[in-house]
Give the backbone structure.
Amino acid sequence: MIEACKSTVAVRNPGIRVLLARWVWVLGLSALLVMLPFVVRLNGKAHADWLQFLGRLHPALVHLPIGMLVLLPFLELAGTTRPGLREAAGFVLRIVLATGAITLAFGILLAYGGGVTGTTVTRHMWGGIALLIELLVCVSVRSLWISGEFPRAYPACLAITLLTLAWTAHQGGLLTHGNDYLTRYMPEPLKRFFPSSSSASDAAYVGSAYTRNIRPILDAKCVACHGANKEQGELRLDFYELLMKGGKDGAVITPQIPDRSLLLQRVTLSPSDRHFMPAEGRMPLTADEIAVLRAWILAGASPTATSIPGIAVAAGNTDLPLQPVGDYGDLMDEIRQMQRSEGAKLVAVSAKPSDGLILRTVDVASKFDDAQLARFQRFAPFIVEAELGRTALSDASFETLAKFTNLRALHLEGTAVTGRALAKLSPLSQLTYLNLSGTKVTSGSLGPLKNMPNLHHVYLFDTPAEPASADANSTPRSPQ
Amino acid sequence: MKQHPLCTDRENSVTPLDFPIPAALKHEWAAIETRRCFLGRTGKVLGWAALAGLFGQMGLRSYGEGADLKSPSAEGRTALGLPHFAPKAKRAIYLFMSGGPPQMDLFDYKPNLASQFNQDMPDSIRGNQQLTGMTSGQAHFPIAPSHWPFGQHGKTGTWVSELLPYTARVVDDLTIIKTTNTDAINHEPAIMLMNTGNMNAGKPCLGAWLAYGLGSMNDNLPTFIVLQTKTNPKENNQPVSSRLWSSGFLSSEYAGVGLRSGVDPVLYLSDPAGVDREVRRNMLDTVEQINRQTLAEMGDPETNARIAQYEMAFRMQSSVPELVDLSKEPQSTWDLYGLEAKQPGTFAYNCLLARRMAERGVRFTQIYKRGWDVHDNAVGVLPLICQETDRGAYALVTDLKRRGLLDDTLVIWGGEFGRTVYSQGGLTQDNYGRDHHPRCFTTWMAGGAVRPGITYGETDDYSYNVVKDPVHVRDFNATILHCLGIDHNKFTYKFQGLDQKLTSPVPAHVVQGLLA
């Protein structure tokens, strides 16, 4: 059987000149393909409708070569025992090549005609070109493989082609489904390998009118096409810097002059205008949103201003944002155990882990001493509130407490602390609340607290340090 | 012998084949009797039964997402995703003024009314408001200006009636809402709406939602405690019932635990002579085993609730005596609350207990005070009831504040509706009565989560309609949930095919203007 096979192969073995000619073809075509993006330049402009029409067939067509290409290794493997399949594989490979070429052409038409740009688009395009070149090489190498001259070359080529396929297809998937499509619902253990790609370049503007009022509008209405995935018109609106930088038509925001701001012009055109934004029938901006944008630009388009004249700033937490604590995912098992335990508990402040933990001792207060507290030291950076009222803690506990650097509230009411060690709390820069009611703290020992800028609420009820309150307990006149 | 057609004596019985019926029916009957038909049908029936069993399990699973057969824990709460965000308030104390306090005699100062004594309220003000049966027959709606003078108090210069001399001293700490409004005009629906977000019984109340959603902060006391104030027979006391602190469709362990207003807050709390803690423990362990068997057999989540309640009762045997033992309270407590607070069942005593429970990690305490229903003799009754409640409310806010508890406690004061500006029945120079009024009434909140020292909303000159910034009951409850870290729209429980929530399916809004 195998001998018969070999004899037919020998007959079809081409001469050296034919081989050379074939490689010249392959190289020439590859060069043309590589040139393609430089000839059909993706400049972010939309082109003729018929180009777009053909281009939009790309997603429909693309799965045909993909399916057949994935079929190929199976055919080749099965071909080792069934020569018919091996012959079929050659045929399939050629069809993959042909349909792949058409798909590539349509894909480039889609990007070119629709004026789509962006890093993912570019990657996807180069992936497609690389795939086609590799397919050309595969076709060429395969005949050598059949003739038995280079037994390793073809399988290697095919493997590389399949890997390229996976990567390119992934890029395409990101384009259609969005960046976090795969990772969003990925189980936690897997997620670790995919660091979140979100950049935090707007972090400095937390709480500003830009973050609270402007960003949400842009995120909802614009960023789908003017963001990290697609950079239509070379314009990105997902960060302040990029928003102000503008796109290929120049700046889109002219501070203080809304009417000269391209962004505002485009969203206020007649919906039938071909420059109207958002394009492609996406939800247009509401009158309110336009008013907010206009007011913001008029006020100078500042990223830090906290209010916009004439516009009610979107309601939100006016406080400083809570300082997020680090990731305690690794300690979760122990924390859960603490929550179940009969003793002191670690309780999450909210469903958001970065809001931190509360150390709650109410059920075991009388038994909770300095040694117990020391056992919680390993969780110290994640504890934002320590409810240690009426515990058996002493001044020695301040040594440990100094390590609770993210502490915002500290309850020590009804404990035996004397205030001698209060200076040890100075590393707790986040501390805003300190309850020393019912302790032996004296006013003389409170000095160190004055150097803690965030500490606004200090409670000294029922201590020697309690400030004398005016007529707190006198009786007001009764009603007639 | 002629036999009945259903007789099982196969040998001699009459079969349908003997009847004068169409041949087709006889054939069908004959076919039914074959073994092939029997086996075939049985097979199908078993298949359907199996399918029904599978669906049934799925149905059970979707019946109550929270009604897990395991008892709830801190982890269960995390699964609920609560609190949705870092809360400003960890606990709440609700001073419920049952009956409907008259807003224009307490907080809603209307100086213009003095000149309109006994004049009819303009019809345009009343509009299409439906009246209760008690005043709908009245030919006149004579305006009754408040009998008591108002004064400005605090740094904020807030107007408060002379009836509330103590509350007036803490106005700078209060967030007064003049425009609370409700849909109901009678006590029962209004008080249900206020507490459960629905006029009909069967829905969980605010406290039960909080107990379910946020869970307990301590192991030894209930998450949600209800205290009733002793009634004063001189006042018009409307009934309050346990539906107001019911858990509705939530597991009954989230229902409010009522402490009695007598000397013994919980009856039979102490073990009888000869039964020591160990015997009690053994008994409870055995009962729990039996309950666990029942749970395994029947799968009814209420069994879980029962087990949890037994355990709670056991722990309350030691925690409640400690809670109500006021002997260690310093003199400053009595100076603040008054000596009345030493008598169990008074409002001041309940307020003091509420503070002690806040210290001990009780999530939600609701104190009911009845008697605000002043249909007549307002001038005689209001001073009584204000005297009973004024100092306690003031002392509670002050006490929480000086002990550093007010920062993370939300205190709420309010009734189920307001009262009319016009007099019910006869208006005399020195007395009047006031009917129910749903369109506006005054409530207040205090605590770190709300903005202190403000008066929110405006009513018209007759304290009849809201002019600015209305706060519907739903918005009121949504705001309370917000203060405790809960997004009222996300906090739902699937029941009867609906994602049920405290604020009902009608849209509600957190009142941002109230928040700190």
Notes: Confidence is low (pLDDT under 50) at residues 61-76 of chain B.
